[in-house]
Amino acid sequence: MAKLIMSLDNAVIREVSLDKERFTIGRKAHNDIQIDNLAVSGEHALIVTILNDSFLEDLGSTNGTLVNGNPIKKHILQHNDVIEIGKYKLKYVSEQPTGQASVADFEKTMVLRAPMAKAAMEATQSGFGDTQVSLSATTQSQPPQVAAAPAKQAENMAAVQILTGPSAGKELELTKNLTTLGKPGVQVAVITRRPHGYFITHVEGANFPIVNGKALDAQAHQLNDHDVVELAGVKMEFFLKNG
Q1: Higher pLDDT, residue 21 or 107
Q2: What is residue 220's predicted lDDT score, i.e. its pLDDT?
Q3: What's the rounded Cα separation, in Å, for the pair 217 and 236?
Q4: Minimal CA–CA distance to 20: which of 236, 239, 217?
Q5: In whole angstroms, how far apart are CA 102 and each of 50, 139, 236?
Q6: Kind plus residue range of the DSSP H or E element containing 121
Q7: Is the Cβ–Cβ distance between 161 and 169 less than 8 Å?
Q8: What is the DSSP annotation of 38-60?
Q9: Neighbours of 36 (CB within 10 A)
Q10: What confidence score (pLDDT) does residue 27 get?
Q11: Helix (H) or strand (E) holding 124
């Protein structure tokens, strides 16, 4: 499990385990990590941890957030990265290997990976571009399998089909362990593939994703076959592809 080692003037103050998916950092008391210092904004930064990857985002703070001395807006944390907020430093320590996601994957509005590239591009050109689909892999792409995949893995394959707008009917297969959906700066969520199912988690935006007419909270929500997800104004249906 990843953790943050918080220090001031080279003296360690505390250690915080990133044992849940969302951690807020800021001056106000409701933050998961409170830093009571005027140089720190009320809601300064956010860390979202999904599988073995942690994503840091500056929440429009007054004085900014640095990682290894460089100002960031969004950053995928790597082992031994040092986050600087005001005079405080938070060292990110992760004993598990992270995925292969890059900063470009996280920040770009669209990363297209075959065989979904054509469908996603058509969706963008026909109006779904306002709710960009970003497919960000956190694990290495798997080579084509000559032998048949295990039955359990085949049963777990899933996809989303766009239901509204000019792109209605387009289908995007969830072939990666982490698929990012939405429009950066407006509303972004990720669907993660885990051994026991698919989960959707809110990442960015004031409004949370809606599943079957009900707004989600900050925690991961397991998706069931034929759930209807509404994200950035577009409705899509999640479904399992058996066999």
Answers
A1: 21
A2: 85
A3: 19
A4: 217
A5: 14, 11, 27
A6: helix 117-125
A7: yes
A8: TTS-TT-EEEEEETTEEEEEE-S
A9: 9
A10: 93
A11: helix 117-125
Residues with Cβ within 8 Å of 190's Cβ and at least 6 positions away in sequence, in order, are 50, 136, 178, 179, 180, 181, 200, 201, 203
* Rounded distance between C-alpha atoms, residue 134 and residue 12, angstroms: 38
Evaluate the omega torsion of the peptide bond into residue 115 and state whether it is cis, within 30 degrees of 0. yes
Beta-carbon contacts of residue 114 (< 8 Å; ≥ 6 apart):
none
All residues at 6 or more sequence positions from 234 whose CB lies less than 8 Å from its CB, including other chains: 128, 131, 162, 163, 164, 165, 167
Q: What is the pLDDT of residues 185-216, one digit of tens each?
A: 677 888 888 888 899 988 877 888 999 999 99
Q: What is the pLDDT of residues 58-76, one digit of tens each?
A: 999 999 999 999 998 888 8
User: Residue 165's CB: how many other CB atoms inside 10 A?
Assistant: 16
Q: Is the pTM above the cut of 0.85? A: no
Report d(CA 45, CA 54) in Å as an integer.
13
